[in-house]
Amino acid sequence: MFEPGSAAPNSISERDDGASLFAARRGRGHIAGWWKSVFGRRPRIMNVALLIVGLGLGQGSIFVVQTVLLATGEYELVTVFGTHYSFAMLGIIVVDGGATTILARAVARLSGDPGSRDEVWRIFCETCAIRLLTASLVGAGAAVYALGFAPDDRFSLCYVAFALPGLLLWAGNAVGVLDGLRLSGISGITGAAAYVLTAIGLALAAHRSPEAAGSILGGTFSLGYSVTLGGQWLALRGNGWQPRFHRVTQAGLVRSLNDGVASLFQLLPGQINMRVQLVLSVTYLGVETTALFIYAKQLVTAATQIIAFVLRVDFPGLVNKMSAAGRHGFRSVLESQKTTFYCALTFAVGATVVAGVAAMLPEAGLHRAAAIMASFAPTIFTLSLSLMMNQALAARGAYAAVARAVATSSALGMLVSYLSIAAWQVYAFIAGEVAIHLVGFLIAYRDLRRVG
Questions:
Q1: What is the pLDDT of residues 198-235, one digit of tens each?
Q2: Interacting residues of 259 by C-beta distance below 8 A, sequence separation 6+
Q3: d(CA 216, CA 42)
Q4: 295 burial class (0-12, 13-18, 19+ CB within 10 angstroms)?
Q5: Are 411 and 276 in contact (CB under 8 A)?
Q6: Least crowded by CB within 10 Å, which of 184, 217, 323, 404?
Q7: Cα–Cα distances in angstroms (integers) from residue 141 to residues 72, 135, 262, 277, in the given order
C-alpha cells in the first residue's frame, strides 16, 4: 500500500533500490533504537561503564607512558611533568569552581519540565561568566609566577604559555549539564581526549630540551581540552539540548559566585593537599622517591575516580531522595549509595593484595612503587566514606557545610603530613590522608544530622 500521491515503483530495479534503501534505514533505526533502549533500561550501568572506559583510555594512557619512562630511568621528566600537570589540573578544578555539582543539581531538578530549559541555560550562562573571570585570574597568576619567580625555568615558561588557552576554554564546559541529564558517561568518554593527547605529548617530550618538552606538553594539554569541549557540545546537541544564550543578571551572578565558592571549597582543600604532598616530597625525599610516589598515587587515584564516577551517576537520584521529607542519617545515605560502598571496599582490598604481591617481586623492577601503593590502598575506602557523606550534604544543597568539613579536615591532614615526614618519610602522607578522611566524615555526619 502506498501513501496518497505517491507512485508505485515502475520497474524491478526501482523496487530493489527502494527495498535496499528501506532495509538500510530500518537497520539504522534498529541500531539507534537498540542503543536508546539499552541506555534507557540501564542508564546507571551504561554511565558507569562509559566513565570507566573513559578513565581507562585517558588516564590509563598516561599511566602506560609513565611506566615506560620510569622503566628507562626518566625520573626527572616524570617528576617535572607530574608537578606541572598536577598544578594545571588544579587550575582546571578552580576554573570549574564546583559548578559541575551545582549545574547537575539544577538540571536534575528542572529538566523534567520542558518549559524550564530557559532557566537552565540562564544558570549555565551565569556560571560560565564566573568561570571565565576565574580562568582569567588563574591565568594571570600563572603568568606572573612563570615570568617573575621562575624566569630561568624554560620548561615552566613554555608549559604555562601553551597550557593557558586550554584553561580559558574550560570555562565553557558542559559536564554539569550532562551529569544532570543522566549522561555523565558521555562526559567521561569525551574527557578521555584531554588525557590521551597529554599522554602522547609526554611520550614525545622524552629526550627533548626543556623548552621543547614544556611546549609539547602545554600544547597537548590545551588541544586535549578543546577536543573534549567540542565533544560535549556535540553530545548535547545530539540529545536535543541546543545551547541558548541568555542575558545574565546581577542576582544570578552573585548566586553563582556564592554557590561556586562554597562548592569549590569542597574540592580545593583536597587538591591543595596533594600539591603540598608533592612539594614536601620533592623537598625532603628527593626526585626518585617523588617519581615513585606520583606513580603509586596515580593508581590509587584511578580507583577513587571510579568510585567518584559511581557517585556522579547516583547524584540525580540522591537529590530526589534527600529532598524528601524526613530525617536523613548515615543509614539512609548508605542505602542510597550501596554500590559505592561495596565498590570502595572491593577496590581497597583488591589493590592492597595485588600491590602487596607485586612488592614481593623485586625482579619486576617496580617493587618499590608497589610497596608504596599497597600502603596507600586502604585510603580508597576511607576516602569513599567521606565522599558519600559530602555528596549527601551536597544533595541537600548544604555546600557551605561540605566546604567547612573539607577545609577543616584537610588543614589537619596537611599538618599531620608535615610534622611526621621527617620520621615516617613517604608514609607520613598516609597518616595525613587517613586523618583527612576520618575527620571529614565525622564533621559531615554531624552536619547532616543538623540539616536533617
A1: 999 999 999 899 999 999 999 999 999 999 999 999 99
A2: 98, 102, 399
A3: 41
A4: buried
A5: no
A6: 323
A7: 35, 10, 21, 21
